[in-house]
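Homework-ish question, so no full write-ups if that breaks the rules, but can someone show me the predicted structure for this set?
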Amino acid sequence: MDKVKIYINGKEFEAIKGTSVLNACRENGFEIPTLCYHEQLEPFGSCFLCTVEIEGGKKKYSLSCGTNVFNDMKIKTDTKEIWNQRKMALELLMSNHYADCVGPCRIACPSNIDIQGYIAAIAEGNYTKAISIIKKDNPFPAVCGRVCTRPCENECRRNYIDSKVGIDYLKRYAADKDLVSKHKYSAEQKKENGKSIAIIGAGPSGLSAAYYLALEGYSIDVFEQYSKPGGMLRYGIPKYRLPHDVLDAEIESIISLGVKIHTNKKLGMDFSLDDIREKKYNAIYLAIGAHDCMFMGIEGEDAEGVYGGIDFLRERVEGKNVKLGKNVIVIGGGNTAIDSARVSVRSGASNVTMVYRRTIKEMPAHESEIEDAVEEGIKIDFLTNPIRVIKDSSCKVIKLECIKMEIGVPDASGRRSPKPIAGSEFTIDADTVIFAIGQKSELKCIEVKPGTATEKLTFTKWHTINTDEKTFQTDQSGIFAGGDFRRGSDTVIGSIADGKKAAWVINKYLVTGEVLDYPEEFYSKKDNLEKQKNEFYTKFEKIEKMNMPKVDAAKRKLSFEEVEKGFTDEMAKHEAGRCMECGCKSVFDCELKDNSNLYEVIQNTFGGAHKDIEPDNRHPYIFFEPNKCINCGRCIRMCSEVVGLSILGFINRGFETTIGTPFNKSLLDTDCISCGLCYDACPTGAIEIKKDTLKGPMQFTKKNSMCSYCSFGCEIICEFMGDKIVSVAGNNSSDINKFGNICKYARFGFRDINENLAEKMSFEKIKTKIDSLKKYLDSSSQEDLAFFIGENVSLEEIFMLKKIAGNYKKSYIGSLKNYRFNAVSSTTLENTRKSDAAIIIAISPYDDVPMIMPEIMKLKKREKPLSYIGFADRRIKKNQDFYFDFKSYGKINEFLNGLMNYFIKNKNMKSSLKNFDSFMNNMAEYKYDEVKIKEFADMLLHSENPVFISSYNTLTSGLFPTINNLLALLNKSENLLLFGESANSAGIIQMGLAKIYESDKIKNRIYYNVALGNKYEEESFIFDFRKTNNRNIIRINHNFAERGTFINAFNTIIKSEKVVNDLDYSNVFLLIEIYNALTNEKYDYSKFEKDFSEELNRIEEKSGEISDTEFILADITDGDIKGTDNNRNIKNFL
Amino acid sequence: MSKYKVVVGMGSCGIAAGAHSVYEKVQETIKNKPELEIMLEETGCIGMCYKEPLVEIENVKTGKKFLYGGVDVKRWDKIVEEHLVKGEGIKKWMVKTSDKDGTEEDIFKKQFRIVLARTGHINPESIEEYIDTDGYKALKRVLRDMKREDVIDEIKKSGLRGRGGAGFPTGLKWEFASKEKNSKKYMVCNADEGDPGAFMDRAVLEGDPHSVIEGMIIGAFAVGSDEGYIYCRAEYPLAIKRLTIAIEQAEKMNFLGDKILGTEFSFYITIKQGAGAFVCGEETALMSSIEGKRGMPRIRPPFPAQKGIWNKPTNINNVETYANVAWIIHNGYEKFAKLGTEKSKGTKVFSLSGKIRKTGLVEVPMGISLREIIFDIAGGIPNNKKFKAVQMGGPSGGCIPEQLLDIPVDYDSLSSTGAIMGSGGMVVMDEDSCMVSIAKYFLNFTQNESCGKCTFCRVGTKRMHEILTRITEGKGREGDVEKLEEIAYMVAESSLCGLGQTAPNPVLTTLKYFRNEYEAHIKDKKCPAGQCKDLIILKIDKEKCIKCGLCALNCPVDCITGNKDTPYEIQQKKCIKCGSCKSVCPVKAVLVE
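A: Not a homework solution, just the prediction itself:
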C-alpha cells in the first residue's frame, strides 16, 4: 500500500494513500467528531462536524470524511475557528432536538441521581440493581428515602397529568430491601493507594466524601465532634422520621470500606487544622455543618424556656432532659421548626403552636411534614411574627407577643415580603419558645492565623466558607469544603452532592495534581426549546398515586416510632409503573450528547422553531422518535448501502426535512426485515430498539455470546439483568459479522426465550424423570427409536447424545430433517469477501441468512456482478445484475441443468472428474434459452473466484446434486457456501449425523431441544427449556445459559460462553448423569472433556480437507424437489 | 405566395399576455379575408415581455417587417383595417420595424444576440426554419472535419464559460469527461431553471430548441457519450413540448440516433422532467434525481466527470451554454472570443424583472455595465422612482447598490461585489423596497428549497430567517445583525452545495450595502422603505386631503372615517396597513411614517 506523508497540527505522520483525512487523523490518534460519517458507509457530508483546515484548500472548513489525503498535506484539526464551527453545528442541531436526555427529576436532583434508572430496576423487582444505581451518586439511599426534600418530585412530569411519582418512597423501598438482604449491595473498591485524606465532620457531606474517596482507595480519617457519627442526620432529624438503626446501617456500610471515624473530636478544641496538616494528610475536606442556632434578636430571648430549635432537637437525642411546658411555641416554617413542634408533642406538650410570618405556600418544610404535623394536632399561626418574649420576674417565659403580617408587593427580585400590620399586636401564652429560624456554622473553631494551614481561609458574612463553586477548594490549596459549611443551612441531598462532587475533585487533584472543575454533564432538555405545559400531556392516562402508609396520628403522637411504614412490593411496583420515562433510552451511548458535552454546547443559543412530530410506535420493537433526528441519514444509508433495501428516506424539504418510510407506512408494512441496523447507525436516540424491560433506561451488565438462529454464527453481546437477557447487540469486534451487524433473529430471538421459558426443575425431580426416561427407552425396541436433535444444540451435547444413543444400536440419531447428502460449505468467509461474483441459488437471503447481505452488498460496491436464481423476491431483485425467478425447486433444477447443457454444447466444456460422460448424457435432454442466459453464462465463465450461496434445504430437497454438478463443471467446487437454519447445522453434519429416517417406522421419539412448541407427540420424550404440554419433559438450559461449541456455515469452530444462569446444572452434566443411569457406568466430566476434545480435533482436521468432487448422478425427479420448511419460531412474531 | 406573413409570439410570456386569442383572431381573419393572403406562423420570445403579445407583419414582397406590441383582439382588427387593408402602418403601436423607426428600437441597440438570435424570429416547431438559419451546419462540420480533440480545443479557445452560474470553462469540463475511460458516458443538459425571476433558459427552449440539441450533440461527440438527458422542470410544459418535437425531428433527419449522418457516432436524448425542486439544479442533486432518487447533493470529488449518473462519467452543462456551442463552431472561436472581457467571453442573457420599465430578456456582450442594461436598454425605473438595488443571480445572488452600477458585467467583477452572475436573473428594486424584507424573501425561498441534508443550510438558514422575521416585525434585538453575520458566514462555509453556500448572499450583500436599514429596523423600530407592516403607521395629511373619500371606500377593514366636510382619518387600531388607501389617493395625501 502506498503511503503518503501528512502533517497533522504541525507534526509529521504517515497515512495510506486514498484514505480520508478523517481516518488518517483517527489512525494517528487525533479524534475528529462526526455524526454522519460511519465506517460502513460512503461519506455523506451532512453534519459538518468533521471539518478540518487544510492548508491551501479552497474552503475554510474542509470535510475530513470526504477529502482524501495527499502527499505533504497540512491538516489542522484543533484551531479556534474549527472549534467554533463545530460548536455552532452542534448548537444548530440541538436547537431542533426536542428531547430530554434525562428526566427533569434527575436534573433537579442536586446529586444528579439516575432516578429513571433505579425506578426501572424497581419495576423489574431488582432492588440490588436499584441500589447500585443510587449509590453511584448517593451513599445514603435509606436515609434520603426518608428525609429528602425531593426537588426531583417537584419537577416530575406526572405533575402535568395527575400527581408526581413517589420517587423518594421508591428509593426508600429499594434501600430497605437491600439493608435486610443477604446479598447487600457493595460497590467495587479500588486497592489502597497509600494516600490519606482527613475529613472534618461526620455528617452527610463528610461521610459521602469519605464513601467515594474510600472507593477510590484512599485511607480516610473522619473527625466528629459528637459522640456518634451522622451530624444533622442524627442530631437534627428526629427518630420518628429517621430511625437510628437505619442511619447506623448506612453509616456502617461506609465504615466497612475502611473509613475510620474518630468521634468526640471537636475541631478547635481537641485538635486544630494545623495538627491535621502536620499529620501529612494529602487533602482535607471541611464539612463541619451548621449547628449554631440563630435567634431573632428580639427582647426577652434570654428568658428561661427559650431554646434554639436545633439545640432542642439535639438535646433530645442526647437524652438530656429538656424542660417543656404545656404551651410550646415554635417559631419558623422549615423542617427544623416542624420537627421541633412534633418532638414537643411527643415530649408531652399539650398545646404546640407554630408561628410563621408568611403563608403555607411559602413554608420551606416539606408539604407531607406539614400535613403530618397538623394531623398530630399542631396549630400553625400563619402571617404572624414574634416581636417580644414576655418573661416573669424569675425570668421565665410566660407569653409571646406577636404581630400579624400581610404579604406586601413584590420587590425587585419578585419576592413578596411580609409586612407587619400596625396595631395588630397580640400575645399568646407560652412556657416554652423554640426559635427554629435557621442555623449557621460555628466559625470560632477555625482560627485563621498567619503562618498556619488556615492562613488563607476566608468566610462570608453568612458564616459560610468561601470556596470555588466548581472545585470546592477553599482559598487554601489542598483544603476543600462542602455541605452546610459551604452552602449555609441546606438540604441533606445538597450536602451529599457536595461530598460526592468534592470527592471527585479531590481524587483528580491527588491523581493529576490539578484542581479541575467538577464536570457538569450536557443534557438536552425539552424545556430549553419549549416550556412544558399541561396540554402537552393530555393524552397520557392518569394513574392513581400510592400513598405512604403511616402510623395513626393519635398513636404516633405518643412515641418516637417511625411514622412512615414504607411501601409493600405491590405498591412499589405500581408506583414505579407510573414513571413516564421522560429521559432518552440512548442516554448512555449518544454521540450527539457526547459531542455536545465536549464542545460545551448551550442548547438555547439560537432558539426558534423546532420539530414536533408524533413518535412512531407501530413496530413492536423498533421505535422512531423523529424529534430527536438530526438528519445524518445514517439509517437511510445503512438500509440501502449495507442491507440492500431502501425502507427509509428523507421526506419534506428545508427545515421540515425528516426521516420516514414512504407514505408514512409502518415498518411492518414495508419490506423492512427488522434487522435494526438503522438503530445501530443512529448517532442519537431517534431510532430505538426496545429492551425487554418494563421501564428504562438503565445500564446493564454485558457478556459476549453467539447467535444460534442460523448457521452464520454471528457474535453478539447480551445485556442482562439477573437471569434475564434484556437486549442483544452485535459484537463490533467480530470477524464473522463485521462491524457487529446482526439481523432480527439475533436481536430479538432472546424474547422468544423470555416469553416461553418453562418452569425450572430441581435436580431431585430430574432424577425421577431420568427413571421414567429409562423405562421409556427400555420399553421401546431399538428399530423404532429415534433421537431427534435440534440444530442449535452444542457439539458437547451432540457428543453425549450420540453416546447415549449408542446404547440403542439400531436407533436413529440426527436432525429432524432428512439430510440426504453429507455436504458442508467448501469455502470460507474470508474467501467469500474476496469473491469476484456472487451467485445465490435457491435461498432467500433476507429470510434465511440476512447477514450475508452486507457481504453481498460489499461485493456490489466493488462492482462485482450479483446473480440470483431462486423464488421471486422483489427485495433482492433491485441489486442483482442477473435475476432469474422460478416457482419451484424443480424449475430451478431444470434451469441449472439447461445451463450446464449450454456449457457442454456451446462452450465445449469437459471435465475429467468421475461420472462426466453419463452426466453429460443426462444433461443433453435439458433445454435452455440462449438469449436469456448468454450474458449470465459468460459472466460465470469469466469469474475467477465466484461464490455460490445456497442452503441445506438443497440437501433435503435434492437440489444439491445439481448445484454440486454445476460447480464441478465450472471447476469451482471449492466455492460453495451452504447455510443451515441453526447455529450447529454444520456441526450435526460434521458429527456424521446427516441421515435419512423413515418416519412411519419410528414409534418412540426422543426430542432434544427441537423447537416444536406444543406439537410434540404425547408419547414422545423431550428435553426442552420451552413451555410445552408434554408431560415427559426434562428441563434443560437454553442456549444463553449453557456454554458450548458450534460449527458455523464457514466451518469456523465457535465457543459460546454462558451468559445467564438458568438451571443449577448444565446440560452436559445432565446428559452424563443420564448416560450413567442408563448404562450403570461411572462416566465423569473429566473423561468427557478428554473424549470430547479428541472428537473436536478429529472434526477440525477433517473440516479443512475437501473430498474429491464427482458428478453426482442422483436419481431425482421433479416430485422430489420441494420447497423449504423453515420452522424458526421467531419468524412468527415479526 | 402570400402577401403577408404574420408571426405571433407564442412563448410562455406571449401566451400569458393573451397571444392565444390573437392567434385565433388571425386565423379568423385568414378565413374571412382570403384576399389578404395572410400566412400565419408562430415564434418564441423575442425578449420584450413587457410588450407582449407581439405580432410581426412581414410584407413578403418587400421583405419589410413591422413588429406590433401589446396586440389584443381589438388592436388586431384595427391593424388589419389600417395596415393590411389600407397599407398604413400604425406607428404608435409599432415597437420595431426594418426601417428602424419603431418606438422601442433602443432596447436592441446594445444587444448582441447569439443565444437569442433565432428566438422570436423562427418557428420553434420547424426544423426547416432552424436549418434555414444555419442550423446543424456546425454539427455537420464537426462530424465531417473535426476530431474530438479539435472540438474541445475550439471550445476552449473560444473562452466559453458555464452559463449556469459558476462559470467553469466549458472546454475544460468536456476535456475532463472525454479523458475518462469508460464505455458509457452521459451528457446532461441542465434545464432546471429554478431561480425566481429567471426565464432565459425557458425562452431558449421554447424559442430555439434545436440550438440546445445541436450543442448537446456536438458536446456528446467531443466527450464520447452516446446517451443524453435533458433535465427540464415539469413547470415548463411548452418547453418540454417543443423539445419533444425537436428531438423527434432531429431523429428523423438523423442528427440524433444511431450512426448520425452516416458516421460511427450515435447519440440519444431523453427528456427527464423534474418535479420542481430548486436544489435539483445543482448538478449532483440533478444526477441523483435522474437516477430516480431524492435530489440531494453529494460530496465532490468524485466529480460528475469521474462518477456521475449511475457512477458513469457525466458531463453537465446549462441550456444557455449548449446554445452557444453551435454558433462558436459555425462562426469560429475567434469571433466569439472577440466579444466580452479578458476572462469572460461572449454574451450573456439576462432576464429583467422587478421595478423596471422594460421587463424581458436581453442578450448583451460581456463587459457591458449594469447601468447600461438597466437604464439604456431597459429604460430605467418606472413611476419616477429612484433605483435602489438590483438582485443578481437569483436567491443565491446578492443585491448590488447604485454606487456599483458601473462595474462591468463579467464573472469576476460581479463576484467581487458579493453577488454572482448566476444564471442571469436580474430583479430590480426601487426606493420602495425594504432590503431586510428582500433578504428575508430570498432566504425564505432557499430555506424552503434546502434539501435538508447539511446542518447549516437546513437549520442555520431557518435561524437566520427567524432573526430577519423578527427584525421586520420590530422585534429585532441588539446583536441580531452580528448573529446573522456569524451564522451567514458559517452557512456559506459549511454547506455541501451551491444552494447552501450562496444562500446567505442576499443577507450578506444587503448587510454590506444597506446595513443602516437593518439598524433602523432594530434600533429605531422603523422601516425606511415603509414596507414592514409592523413598523409603519399610515396617516392622512389633513391639509393635502381633498375629502374625496376614495380611501375610505377602498379600505378593506373600514377603518377610515371622514366626510365631505372633514378630512379623512385612519383609525390606527383597526388599520391592517395594507396600503390600499395610499395607492388610491389621488393627491398622495396618505403618508407612511
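Now go work out the reasoning yourself. Hint: The first helix of chain B runs from residue 12 to 17.
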